[in-house]
Amino acid sequence: MMSRIRSKNTKLDLAMKEALDDAGLQYVMYPDLVGKPDFLVGDHLALFCDSAFWHGRNWHALRRRLEAGSNPGYWVAHISKNRRRDREVNRALAHKGYVVLRFWDEDVFKAPGECVAKIHEALSG
User: Fold this and answer.
1) Are strands 39-41 and 27-29 parallel, antiparallel or unpaired?
2) pTM for the whole thing?
């Protein structure tokens, strides 16, 4: 099942790509960096577009739902591992001088302008 889950050119990534294009920002999609960010904007801004489920948004509530579902040991461990990896990637990229921004899927789909505003803020800061 997991092999069918795409990691590139997802609807989420394409929505962010459209927002970046509309804003006239220059970027590289899927740069060869630690953690495989979805975008590199400018020289040092690594962007990740994270799915709420796979990256554990609202972790306490999601964890309770997973623990009540089927195969809870697998799912809690899997999402916990993803969350831990995300933190490690953020640290590794920051150590190399990158600014890391992570956007939740809901934010990219429902408020792309706010995401772009945060990107502009990070680029100017």
Assistant:
1) antiparallel
2) 0.90
